[in-house]
Amino acid sequence: MANEAPVGARLARDAGNAVFLKSALSASRASFAPTTSFAPTKRNQGERTPPHSSSRSFEEVARGCYTARHFVLQACPVTTIATAFNTLPLSAAMLANLESLGYAQMTPIQAQSLPVILKGMDLIAQAKTGSGKTAAFGIGLLNPINPRFFGCQALVMCPTRELADQVAKEIRRLARAEDNIKVLTLCGGVSFGPQIASLEHGAHIIVGTPGRIQQHLRKGSLVLDGLNTLILDEADRMLDMGFYDAIEDIIQQTPERRQTLLFSATYPAGIKQLSSKFMRDPQQVKVEALHSDAQIEQRFYEIAPEQRMDVVGKVLAHFRPASCVAFCFTKQQVQDTVDHLVSKGISAVGLHGDLEQRDRDQVLAMFANRSTSVLVATDVAARGLDIDALDMVINVELARDSEIHIHRVGRTGRAGEKGLAISLVAPSEAHRAQAIEQLQKAPLNWDQLDTLKPQAGGPLLPAMSTLCIAAGRKDKVRPGDILGALTGEAGIPGTQVGKIAIFDFQAYVAVERGIAKQALKRLNEGKIKGRSLRVRIL
Fold first, then answer.
1. Which of 31, 183, 369, 452 could form a disulfide with 318 if both were Cys (CB 3.0 to 4.6 A apart)?
2. For the chain, give me the number of helices (H) and strands (E)?
3. How far apart are CA 15 and CA 19, in angstroms?
């Protein structure tokens, strides 16, 4: 037990009792058998090994009580957190599905939150991006679902459509363990009609944004009378975006006897206000948000304000990342950065709140399939990005909240990969750098601008190009149809085809840059699923 070490140290430091201590510890060792792991099941969930059990070890005798010059050793059970999913009261089907999905061990947030969630308790969980929180609440909300009742039994609120789509996708994967679990997304940017039709057919789980959920409640197309579980994902961002009143209105239309789970990267005052008003004795868990220097290398550069755009270009020319997100504070700064990079021959696209939904889908598809090198985004717009291997993050301007800085940096260096985070700091942002240093409890790694030298290789262009097809999910187009058209009639090797993303009315497919024009010509001359469809290169 790590937090008992100082007690043992204090005992050992008392030289007058060192001999007594040594003999007492030796006697204790002889009294306890080696430790055996305690795996909670449905029958013994939450129970502790009884005091007389022989499964305790000497390591559990960790606390010494010292009065005057007398010592009394007492057993103190070690609190260890199990990380195997089979220690949880989950069905055999769910455990088998988790194994098939590659979920070998629980992440720290899953290990701390799932036992609480599965007991039906309210929870406030604070964890960084990429911590596995979606699977944590996804597994939890699926546990009490009744497949025979086609009403909304779980509601997940997210700040953006991109995050809602990502969450819904993950829940669908987790729901494979059960038959016929329907997950529906309700977000703005698309028409009401199809959403209302889907709601009429019933859905077990709704994932959406507060504004659109609120609209459906007002129209009566969504009813929450049968709700068991309410989840607020990225709650801090929803509050930042001004959704407090909408969230409050939605929660007031849910049953009082529900389970409420709140997940957030930071813990602003609004979270406390929400929890005190709408949660019942919530348990709190927090997973350390700081990143290991061995996993993510951070470099800070001091700049003059007028140097900012030029230095972004120099950073990219020096490090030449295949995939990079550049974080800005305003929409205008996003557009200025994109314009500057494009003028320098660098493939870059912008993501901010003023984009139409179709344009947002296109930007995200191009970045995910590696047909653009740099995504320039505001913090809110970047929430919910699902990026496999992100080489680098650039903080074009330092975040005004040190925990948001940690959140940004955590986009890179995931899944065991190395990552690099570059931060540009103008003199007026020095206090922000100081706050980051205090949070990280370590000096910042400052580097000199003159170390940024252009590397060989010409313009920073991506390896792939994106073809946009004027048909999508509503036209019954499937990924296999597109792949078949490319590798069949078009004669393109499958190894030269990348990711395929299908939206309601359009689809995107990545192909190697060198064959993009050839693939475009053949698709326009041929057919996809027996139809001639318009195709263009983005």
1. 452
2. 19, 20
3. 8
Q: Is 426 exposed, middle or buried (0-12, 13-18, 19+ CB in 10 A)?
A: middle
Q: At a CB cut-off of 8 Å and minimum separation 6, what does 199 contact?
A: 184, 216, 221, 222
Structure tokens at 493: 């090797």
What DSSP letter does each residue of 72-115 carry, written as one string?
EEE----------GGGS---HHHHHHHHHTT--S--HHHHHHHH
At a CB cut-off of 8 Å and minimum separation 6, what does 243 contact? 159, 210, 211
Q: What distance separates the 2 farthest-apart alpha carbons in the chain?
A: 93
Instruction: Tell me whether strands 229-232 and 154-157 are parallel, antiparallel or unpaired.
Output: parallel
The burial class, CB within 10 Å (0-12 / 13-18 / 19+), for 284 is middle
Decide: helix, strand or coil at residue 16: helix
Q: How many CB atoms lie within 10 A of CB 230?
A: 24
Angle, CA of 485, 488 and 489, to the nearest 5°: 75
> Rounded to an integer, what distance in angstroms lies between the CA atom of residue 115 and that of residue 385?
28
Distance CA 423, CA 2 (A): 35
Asked whether 222 and 254 are in contact (CB, 8 A), the reply is no
pLDDT, tens digit (0-9, with 9 covering 90-100), for 155-197: 999 887 778 888 999 999 999 877 789 999 998 767 888 899 9
| Residue 311 pLDDT level (bands cut at 50, 70, 90) | very high
On average, the pLDDT of the chain sits at 77
CA 490 to chain centre: 38
* Distance of alpha carbon 366 from alpha carbon 169, whole angstroms: 19
**More confidently predicted of 406 and 56:** 406
Element (H or E) spanning 326, and its range? strand 324-328
Beta bridge partner(s), residue 509? 467, 500
| Helix ranges (DSSP H) in 344-441 | 357-368, 379-382, 402-409, 430-440
What's the rounded Cα separation, in Å, for the pair 228 and 301?
49
Which are the contacts of 308, defined by CB distance < 8 A and separation ≥ 6?
Answer: 396, 397, 424, 426
Chain length of the chain: 538
Q: How do strand 374-378 and strand 324-328 relate by DSSP bridges?
A: parallel
> What mean pLDDT is predicted for residues 39-64?
33
pLDDT at 9 over 70: no
Mean pLDDT of 105-109: 86
Torsion sign (Cα): 269, 274, 280, 286: negative
Q: How many whole angstroms separate alpha carbon 277 and alpha carbon 537?
A: 51
Q: Which tokens in the block code for residue 205?
A: 């789980």
* Run of H or E residues at 420: strand 419-425
Q: For strand 63-67 and strand 70-74, is the pairing parallel, antiparallel, or unpaired? A: antiparallel
| Cα distance between residue 112 and residue 40, in whole Å | 14
User: What percent of the chain stands above pLDDT 70?
Assistant: 79
Query: How many whole angstroms separate alpha carbon 148 and alpha carbon 150?
Result: 6
Query: Could you tell me which of 193, 144, 188, 197 has the C-alpha nearest to residue 165?
Result: 188
